[in-house]
């Protein structure tokens, strides 16, 4: 028996019970009156709501259940790690002494009841007094107590309960003796020796005394008051936030009646944010923007599926349909069918301050609250989508010529590219673009996010000589790979990227060694030979997968081409300059178009005019827009004196005015228009200086107007 607010770890214990033929069920605690302040005085009334009984074998009923001699386990958290709700520790005595009463005659109420307190979250500010609340098992986490070390906790067991535990597996020093070639083992006497398999983490254990020293200095009661006051302060401020139309900004979780807990809510605040129209901001959007402001949050369900479903109002059908839609723990699917799949959590500790809470409120207000002043000044609302022109786009744009300013090819994924005046096209985009990538020996794809040094690897392809040249400051010699030679190749293999199958060509040891030296870790180079990965455009202009082999992509993340406009970059730089002068007065950062790793840079139009393009023509080549490009922190990397450095810009500034439903958009993704693929041959080239046109109805007519 367990509460809906229990952590996944308790659901893991459930597996042992169900596999052995036992029953399991969850509870909602409806009422649990608080202690009246006198020592030893506890509640005598608890009402619970029992969820359906789970049993994997209905025909298998344990004999002990029929006679009432079964040992039963009730598990509950002292503090819910999703909502911060604190449960009364009197539940220990209530269940042990009055299980039949609170379960109202349930056949599972009989037997010997034992209690497990999951104090991993609550022990930091509300450690249970086991002389008053004689739980049989208590679980604590030193990481949640002190913030260090990770992966170390403790299981506290009453001596009489320890005698009931039967452990099968053993290793290391958990047995007194064993014989290898016959069935003989003698276990140790002490219960702790049964469970400490292998070498214990003695270095980590030695460090926790420093944490206890701090706790003894501050006292848990003082820490409890401090963290509770911070949490209450933040809740009050969040609930007071309103959009310009009066709509609430924040929905808090766990604001239940105080009757459910012994000390109110704990040190965490869980919530989701709403737009002025009532739709939800995704929790991943909040997390991403918070990180840019130096604020670390936990988002999702926090490994507490019961509390998550309970507070978010997710039914079983919702959870199953979300799973069928591809949503799993830790992914980016934060809003499905109009409902959030998780929440945002702020956790306070003894080192947290009111300044921290105020900084967070300021972040929420500036990033997610629409203010009347923004209407008056005519600025883009951060809470709304980027304005999308629906008509008259050609008339709105300048009549002067818009042309292709530069072409850049990136042969190796996440490495530096090279610019050219003209370049041939292929069915995958620009010829050789992102045709190669580096992967670790474990199969992990290497990118600048994980290996920033990749930005220092320069590439160039000589089309006449069919040679790929690669240089790195970490390698003395330039690497040259002949593209028309098989001497470097070492067989083919299948490779999966973005859940799509690729057939790739592997390279010889000396090639791989060169790249290993360049990035500072063992890796291998592979070349895309065949791909079934491509994009289609749905009716709502969102990207989808297709099997059209004529529009394949190599190892690009999203599309065949990425286009940005020089005017959009210029507008961004003006904003960066303005923000710098307003806040620091220092030298403003300047962002070059290459920071965004575009294939195509155009010039001659208005800033962000590309947002409204559905179809376009460059020279003689037709393209379809797949929508805006969602930017990540990779654009915050820049080179300085041969080193790769990182700042919060330009992503932080882009987030202030280029956000659309959790995405920060800059530039557009393109692919060949399917209707014109037949006209693409080996002689098709893109050339710098070619004019850029739009076609409003996408019919093959000769009356297109220049789009800018």
3D structure, described in words:
The structure is a single chain. 24% of the residues lie in helices and 27% in strands. Strands 16, 17, 29, 30, 31, 32, 35, 36, 38 and 39 form a 10-stranded mixed sheet that branches. A 4-stranded mixed sheet has the order 4-5-6-7. A 4-stranded antiparallel sheet has the order 10-11-15-12, with helices on both faces. Mean pLDDT is 82; it is low at 33-43, 256-262, 373-400, 533-550 and 696-707. Strand 16 (403-409) and strand 17 form a beta hairpin. Helix 8 (220-240) packs parallel to helix 12. The radius of gyration is 31 Å and the shape is globular. The chain is of the alpha+beta class and 708 residues long.
Mean pLDDT across all residues, rounded?
82
Gyration radius, to the nearest Å? Answer: 31 Å
Shape from CA axes? Answer: globular
Distance between the termini: 68 Å
The structural class is alpha+beta
Number of helices: 17
Low-confidence stretches: 33-43, 256-262, 373-400, 533-550, 696-707
State the share of residues found in helices, binned by percent: 10-25%
Share of residues in strands: 25-35%
Describe the main β-sheet briefly. 10 strands, mixed
Number of strands: 39
Key structural traits:
4-stranded mixed sheet; 10-stranded mixed sheet; disordered C terminus; alpha+beta; 708 residues
Can you summarize this structure?
The protein is α+β, with helices and mostly antiparallel strands.
Topology:
Blueprint (H helix, E strand, L loop, with lengths): L1 E2 L4 H12 L6 E7 L13 E5 L12 H5 L3 E7 L13 H12 L9 E7 L18 E5 H5 L6 E5 L1 H4 L12 E5 L4 E4 L3 H5 L6 H17 L1 H21 L9 E4 L14 E6 L9 H10 L5 E3 L4 H8 L3 H9 L10 E2 L2 E2 L2 E5 L6 H15 L3 H6 L15 H4 L6 E7 L8 E3 L1 E5 L2 E2 L5 E5 L17 E5 L4 E5 L7 E4 L6 E9 L2 E8 L1 H11 L3 E9 L2 E4 L5 E4 L14 E5 H18 L16 E4 L11 E4 L2 E10 L6 E4 L2 E4 L4 H7 L1 E2 L2 E10 L12 E3 L4 E3 L10 E2 L2
Helix pairs in contact: 8-12
């Amino acid at each position: 028996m367990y509460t809906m607010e229990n952590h996944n770890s308790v659901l893991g214990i459930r597996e042992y019970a169900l596999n052995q033929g036992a029953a399991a069920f969850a509870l909602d605690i409806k009422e649990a009156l608080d202690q009246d302040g006198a020592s030893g005085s506890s509640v005598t009334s608890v009402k619970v709501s029992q969820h359906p009984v789970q049993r994997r074998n209905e025909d298998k009923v344990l004999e002990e259940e029929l006679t009432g001699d079964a040992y039963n386990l009730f598990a509950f958290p002292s503090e819910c790690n999703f909502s911060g709700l604190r449960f009364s520790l009197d539940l220990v005595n209530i269940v042990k002494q009055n299980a039949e009463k609170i379960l109202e005659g349930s056949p599972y109420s009989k037997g010997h009841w034992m209690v497990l307190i999951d104090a991993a979250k609550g022990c930091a500010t509300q450690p249970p007094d086991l002389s008053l609340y004689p739980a049989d098992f208590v679980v604590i986490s030193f990481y949640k107590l002190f913030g260090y070390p990770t992966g170390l906790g403790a299981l506290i067991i009453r001596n009489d309960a320890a005698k009931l535990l039967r452990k099968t597996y053993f290793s290391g020093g958990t047995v007194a003796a064993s014989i290898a070639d016959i069935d003989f083992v003698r276990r140790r006497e002490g219960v702790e020796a049964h469970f400490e398999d292998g070498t214990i983490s003695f270095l980590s254990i030695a460090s926790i005394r420093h944490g206890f020293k701090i706790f003894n200095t501050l006292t848990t009661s003082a820490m409890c008051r401090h963290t509770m006051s911070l949490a209450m302060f933040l809740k009050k401020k969040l609930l007071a936030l309103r959009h310009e139309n009066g709509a609430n900004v924040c929905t808090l979780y766990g604001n239940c009646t105080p009757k459910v807990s012994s000390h109110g809510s704990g040190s965490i605040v869980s919530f989701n944010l709403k737009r002025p129209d009532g739709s939800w901001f995704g929790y991943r959007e909040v997390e991403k923007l918070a990180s840019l402001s130096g604020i670390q949050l936990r988002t999702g369900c926090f490994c507490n599926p019961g509390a998550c479903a309970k507070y978010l109002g997710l039914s079983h059908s919702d959870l199953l349909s979300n799973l069928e839609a591809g949503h799993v723990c830790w992914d980016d699917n934060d809003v499905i069918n109009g409902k959030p799949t998780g929440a945002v959590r702020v956790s306070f500790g003894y080192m947290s301050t009111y300044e921290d809470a105020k900084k967070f409120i300021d972040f929420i207000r500036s990033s997610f609250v629409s203010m009347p002043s923004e209407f008056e000044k005519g600025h883009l609302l951060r809470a709304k989508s980027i304005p999308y022109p629906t008509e008259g786009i050609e008339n709105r744009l300048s009549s002067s010529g818009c042309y292709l300013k530069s072409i850049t090819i990136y042969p190796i994924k996440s490495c530096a590219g090279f610019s050219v005046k003209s370049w041939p096209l292929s069915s995958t985009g620009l010829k050789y673009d992102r045709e190669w990538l580096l992967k670790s020996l474990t199969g992990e794809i290497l990118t600048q996010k994980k290996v920033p040094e990749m930005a220092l690897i320069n590439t160039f392809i000589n089309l006449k000589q069919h040679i790929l040249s690669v240089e790195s400051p970490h390698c003395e010699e330039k690497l040259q790979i002949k593209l028309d030679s098989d001497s470097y190749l070492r067989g083919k293999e299948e490779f999966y990227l973005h859940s799509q199958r690729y057939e790739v060509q592997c390279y010889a040891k000396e090639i791989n060694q060169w790249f290993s030296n360049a990035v500072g870790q063992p890796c291998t180079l592979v070349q895309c030979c065949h791909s079934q990965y491509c994009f289609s455009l749905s009716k709502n202009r969102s990207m989808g997968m297709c099997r059209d082999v004529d529009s394949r992509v190599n190892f690009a993340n999203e599309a065949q081409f990425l286009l940005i406009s020089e005017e959009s970059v210029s507008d961004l730089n003006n904003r960066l300059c303005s923000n710098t002068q307003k806040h620091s007065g220092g030298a403003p950062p300047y962002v070059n178009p290459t920071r965004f790793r575009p294939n195509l840079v155009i010039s001659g139009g208005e800033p962000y005019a590309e947002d409204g393009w559905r179809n376009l023509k460059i020279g003689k080549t037709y393209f379809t827009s797949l929508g805006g490009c969602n930017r990540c922190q990779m654009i915050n990397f820049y080179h300085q004196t041969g080193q790769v450095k990182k700042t919060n810009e330009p992503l932080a500034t882009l987030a202030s005015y280029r956000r659309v439903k959790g995405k920060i958009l800059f530039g557009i993704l393109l692919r060949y228009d399917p209707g014109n693929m037949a006209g693409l041959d080996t002689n098709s080239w893109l050339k710098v200086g070619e004019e850029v046109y739009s076609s409003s109805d996408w019919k093959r007519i000769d009356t297109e107007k220049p789009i800018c």
